[in-house]
Write a structure and sequence with these properties.
- The chain is an alpha+beta fold.
- It has two helices and ten strands; from the N terminus they run H-H-E-E-E-E-E-E-E-E-E-E.
- It is elongated, with a radius of gyration of 22 Å.
């Protein structure tokens, strides 16, 4: 390949990368989020639990070893489910295997049918700049009701 062909090839590759970033970001300006690689993983992101006492688990892992502790705080969107613990901790000993959270159905004694509850995952916190303030996927929880609607005749 001569110098002129190499420059033309490089220019074409650069234009292609710009077009991909434009499609991914949805704007004319490539965004950092469009090229950010997910470093904090959640699996699974869809759970099912049933009243009165059903539970399920999800795991949060990191894609590489952190230099210091990484925290991910958890909360729920409503009173249909609960999550424990309230904060997950990942460090050099568990970053690959992950930290496990337990989601439980909350028995409300109300015949309200199947409900959706979300486990909100706050942005990660860490003094390691590779893992500080990263977005983490939320978990959707389908909660099946065990109560039956009374029929009045």
């Amino acid at each position: 390949m001569n110098k002129r062909t190499g420059v033309a090839w490089l220019a074409a590759a650069w234009m292609l990368l710009g077009a991909v970033l434009l499609l991914v970001s949805g704007s004319g300006v490539p965004s950092r989020a469009a090229v950010q690689v997910e470093k904090v993983m959640v699996d699974p992101v869809d759970l099912t639990v049933s009243e009165p006492s059903g539970t399920d688990l999800f795991t949060v892992t990191l894609t590489s070893e952190p230099t210091v502790m990484v925290y991910v705080d958890l909360s729920t969107s409503n009173m249909q489910c609960s999550v424990s613990p309230a904060s997950l901790e990942l460090d050099a000993t568990n970053w690959a295997a992950g930290a496990i959270a337990t989601v439980s159905a909350v028995d409300d004694a109300i015949a309200d049918g199947t409900q959706i509850c979300r486990v909100f995952t706050e942005k990660s916190r860490s003094e390691d700049p590779n893992f500080h303030l990263l977005s983490v996927r939320d978990v959707k929880v389908t909660v099946y009701d065990d109560d039956v609607q009374d029929i009045v005749v």
